[in-house]
Amino acid sequence: MRINYNYIKIIGLLLLVVGLFAFSKHRNSNRNTSEPIIKFFGENKLFITEATVSKLLIQNQQSVTGQPKEIIDLNELETALNSNPMIKKAEVFMSVNGELSAEIEQKRPIARVNTNASYYIDDEGSFMPLSSNYAARVPLVTGSVKKNDLESVFQFAKTVDEDEFLKKHVIEIRQNDDKTIDFKIRKSDFVVHLGTLNQLKKKINNFKAFYQKALKDKILDNYKLVNLKFDKQVICTKI
């Protein structure tokens, strides 16, 4: 009987590969998770700290650090992070050697409500709590404001945030009981009555024209009320 050594070599090689794979899988599954590497993306200041993020990375009611890699549920960790009202989006990754990474994008506030409750409105119109680590320099929102009904305030705050002139000058946004909007600007005492958000772009252009003319004539301090609710004119009430 003639022995085919080539077959023996192939079988031996296959057994070796299977053995190495099983050993590698066993060794990999027994790796423990390292201390999480936390990365923040975007230009926002740190409203939420690395320490806070680490405390949210919990598996089986304890920190993920040092736990076996095979029991870590990345979806569960992402859900925990994304449920935090400071976080806009979070993604969690695990490398083959058990290195856990979390990438965090924080929410970006565009206005701060200061009524019977204090909180931010972010750039998507959502609630965002204040942070003990950093205070954003954004317009204050006062008046009749409810956390579950922020649409009108948000739409005007978004307009302010996206307009270079308004962002530089507007310091306070007030929502009245009828949901009309007033606002105040930096270094001036008069109130600007915007009215509803109808014809908003035209009203803002009217205000910019008024402001530039009054600034040039040095008469901004002569007024106590600037009324923009009529989209074809600006009506001013003198002191």
Write the layout of secondary structure elements.
Blueprint: H1 5-29, E1 37-41, H2 50-56, E2 58-59, E3 62-63, H3 74-82, E4 87-94, E5 100-106, E6 109-114, E7 118-122, E8 127-128, E9 140-143, H4 151-162, H5 164-169, E10 170-175, E11 181-185, E12 191-195, H6 200-217, E13 223-227, E14 235-238
Parallel strand pairs: 1-5, 6-9, 9-10, 12-13
Antiparallel strand pairs: 2-3, 4-5, 6-7, 7-8, 10-11, 11-12, 13-14
Question: Briefly, what is this?
Answer:
By secondary structure, the chain is of the alpha/beta class.
Radius of gyration: 29 Å
Structural class: alpha/beta
Q: Give the topology string: H per helix, E per strand.
A: HEHEEHEEEEEEHHEEEHEE
Strand order of the largest sheet: 8-7-6-9-10-11-12-13-14
Low-confidence runs: 19-28
Proportion of helical residues? 25-40%
Q: Give the overall silhouette.
A: elongated
Biggest beta sheet attributes:
9 strands, mixed
Mean pLDDT: 86
Number of helices: 6
* β-strand amount: 25-35%
Description of the molecule:
- The protein has 239 residues and is α/β, with parallel strands linked by helices.
- Helices cover 32% and strands 28% of the residues.
- It contains six helices and 14 strands.
- The longest helix is centred in the N-terminal third of the chain and has 25 residues, at 5-29.
- The relative contact order is 0.09.
- The model is unreliable at 19-28 (pLDDT under 50).
